[in-house]
Amino acid sequence: MSNPRIGTFLITCSAFLWACSLATTVEYDSNAIIINGERRIIMSGAIHYPRSTSQMWPDLIQKAKDGGLDAIETYVFWNLHEPTRRKYDFSGDKDIIKFLKNVQEVGLYVVLRIGPYVCAEWSYGGFPMWLHNLPGIQLRTDNAVFKEEMQIFTTKIVNMCKEAGLFAPQGGPIILAQIENEYGDVISHYGEEGNAYIKWCAQMALSQNISVPWIMCKQSNAPSPMINTCNGYYCDNFKPNNPKSPKMFTENWVGWFQKWGERKPHRTAEDIAFSVARFFQRGGVFQNYYMYHGGTNFGRTAGGPYLITAYDYDAPLDEYGNLNQPKWGHLKDLHAALKLGEKILTNGTTTEKQYGNSVYLTTYTNNVTGEKFCFLSNSDDSQDAQVDLQQNGKYNVPAWSVSILQDCNKEVFNTAKVKAQTNIYVKKQATIGNPLNWVWTPEPMDDTLKGLGSFKAPLLLEQKGVTVDASDYLWYMAEVFINDTSSWQNATLQVNTTGHVLHVYVNGQYIGRQWGKYDNLHFTYENMISLHQGTNVISLLSGTVGHPQYGAFFDMRDEGIVGGPVKIIGSNQKTTLDLSTSNWSYKVGLNGETQRFYDPTSLNGVHWEKNNVPNGRPMTWYMTTFETPEGEDSLVLDLQGLGKGEAWVNGKSIGRYWPTMVADKNGCSDTCDYKGNYEPQQCASGCGEPSQRFYHVPRSFLHQNNNKLILFEEMGGNPFNLNCHGGKTVSEIQFASYGDPQGKCGSFQKGEWESSYSMAVVEEACIGKQSCSVDVTNSKFKIRFGGADGRLAVQLLCDGSDPNDGRVQSVHA
After folding, report:
1. 251 catalytic per annotation
2. Which of 162, 318, 652, 688 could disulfide-link to 665, CB 3.0 to 4.6 Å?
3. Which of 700, 720, 740 is the last residue of a domain?
4. Is residue 646, in this structure, part of any structural domain at all?
5. Under a CB-based contact definition with an 8 Å cutoff, are residues 473 and 499 in contact?
6. Are the beta carbons of 676 and 568 closer than 8 angstroms?
7. Within a domain: 14
8. Residues 176, 267: one domain?
9. 680 Cβ partners below 8 Å, 6+ apart?
10. Is there a single domain that holds both residue 357 and residue 412?
11. Sign of torsion, CA 306 312 313 314?
């Protein structure tokens, strides 16, 4: 082309004319979604744009299309785009318009769930935290302040999509939009104001004039013309509140989310296929997988609280975008079978015949051509069925399955007969240049350990209202003046908290830590302390692990040490100091966060120490450099051996880590029976293992070389890890002492004190494993006094190695 300018102009015009020519009408009735007059059943799958990267989007979308989907569904994440009021961000991986255009380029439709409340196991349900502090606001109810903010954001998203020509009547891919989300679960708690709010939502949505249908999921009183829809594991019995509305399954949960300390859930391909086939057997029109690709909760976006960083969801595309087989392939085969009957399903009449208990034949007949399409289902969860359809043949229908019969006489698919291949992905150690050399720096705490904050208040404040989600951390600091120390030498500090994690310092000394459980976050910390004469400083660091995102008034749940009480109980148990109404000093976040220790390009002059790199030391920052592995395979970071914290690669957060949170040893099985109504505790795996050990590092986060991995280690983990190389496992613990061990490799000796449980704890954690980690704390080794944590020295022998060459690690607290 001799003139690039002319060529570009012609291409642009062609694209414009093409878009105009594809203006699309979207209508519906009880039997079909009608697109440009064509009666359709729609297969959709959820892919959330911020849980992957913009570089991953085209591949994910193409794999969804290859899997037989017609549409991609996504939420719009308000707090992602408006973290500060009226300051918007749609850049990079937040570029929702680019994501929607990527979907259109592949030829798929879009279901846009604006919400803007999303739930989605996303921190604070997708609401920006600044909403919480607006005067007079109440979220998700008939409240003028909230409704104004919700309408402003909804309108902004709609206008952006209109400007980009993304709604179907403009030639764009968006065929459905959603307002609010699962409000029917909580509406009863809001009384008449809840009913008024849902009517307002409908009116506000209709006023946007997008010319495509609006939906409300799990909303039995959705005002017309809103289409109410079903979410769950099974929606075959669902009926919309308007007989003219199509039967829609907006969230078919293909698995479940996971919390720190929980096992990994799994839902079988057979059961999901059964759920989908039964739904269409009983008049379904639209079905969406939640999730089709779950992805990753990068940064601090995971909600819960206590939701892990991975949002894999056991989806057809795994966290990294790989095909999760046989699930992806089995569902692809199902979609192809259903599409064979699309014209009949959407243009016909239905008859049903029962063959014994739990066995039904549903026949769809095209009113014009007389063509037939059948579903033969067996919902018994144990007994197979033998069905004789006379001239149409005999069929074996396994328990808990559906057979799809083309022309009602040829089985083209059965949900229990998996023909797709099974994939097992193996994690292999990548070549990243020279062995990792760590440098470190302590979290600066001189100010907070002295009680110096940025403001004061004569009460214990609620954490999220103070931090406004700027950090997981909030310092609470108070001074205690003592005249007579006789009652306070062996006193007890008692802290009552609804925070998720608590670290305690007294007069600059680390006293200990505690955290709640995923099913009971409220706890009381108690430990012995000694106060000296004069002024003593109590410094409490409260940490959150994701904000709640579900339930009535979830936004009002207290977090942090709000209200306390915080008490010091004298050694005689008769004298108590209640510090709850003291003049508390506060500081939001860590100094390392403020100074951007996590960003290797920061100009704040972080001093990284090369020598005496500690492990087992809480409140420590680590950094190392690595080269980018060759190839295009997905990359994961193995953080086994660390405690709890957050990890960054080249300044981009790959999320919170907490590999010491281990799942219960019970409840897993080598076999998995797909039959019967699914519950998340079924078919679980990972018993006795970290809820999450491996963390996704997108290749787009990497440079060509010289990548920086930075960790903030909150609990005190070991970046070096204890491990055996070459596939060997730990066969013997030759020495283990927690306390005050002395010596070095090959000549360790017990110190002045040690835990009698030292050997037992290490053996339980390490024997028979290639790698292991131990929580180096007094509580782990059953030390009851209130002093600082000790040190751990371990010498171990790897299977098949020279007994004189055991691999050794000394861990210092």
Report:
1. yes
2. 688
3. 720
4. yes
5. no
6. no
7. no
8. yes
9. 256, 265
10. yes
11. negative
Q: Which of 340, 361, 392 is the last residue of a domain?
A: 340
Distances (CA, A) of 5 to 13, 178, 545, 590: 13, 41, 53, 52
Please report, rounded to a whole number, the percentage of residues in the chain having pLDDT higher than 90. 78
| pLDDT tens by residue, 320-346 | 999 999 999 999 999 999 999 999 999
Helix, strand and coil percent figures for the chain, each rounded to 5: 20, 30, 50
597 and 607 fall within a common domain: yes
465: containing domain: 445-589
Average pLDDT, the chain: 91
Whole-angstrom distance, CA of residue 708 vs CA of residue 439 = 11
Q: Give the H/E segment covering residue 594.
A: helix 591-594
pTM of structure? 0.89
Residue 261 has pLDDT above 50, yes or no: yes
Secondary structure, 3-state, 494-512: EEEECCCEEEEEECCEEEE
- Predicted confidence band at 319 (pLDDT cuts at 50, 70, 90)? very high
HEC per residue, 240-258? CCCCCCCEEEEEEECCCCC
Residue among 82, 149, 180, 251 flagged as catalytic: 251
Q: What is the pLDDT of residue 723?
A: 54
- Among residues 587, 716, 692, 606, the alpha carbon closest in space to that of 651 is found at 606
Is the pLDDT reported for residue 12 higher than 70? no
* Single-letter amino acid code for the residue at 553: F
Give, in order, the Cα–Cα distances in Å from 636 to each of 690, 692, 694, 695: 15, 12, 6, 5
Which residue's structure tokens are 């008769």? 574
Phi, psi of 696 (to 5 degrees): -70, 130
**Catalytic residue, candidates 182, 262, 319, 754:** 182
Closest CA to 773 of 663, 642, 665: 642
Q: Which residues have a Cβ under 8 Å from the Cβ of 303 and sit 6 or more positions away? A: 120, 121, 122, 123, 124, 125, 546, 547, 548, 549, 550
> Quick one: which H or E segment has residue 17?
helix 4-21
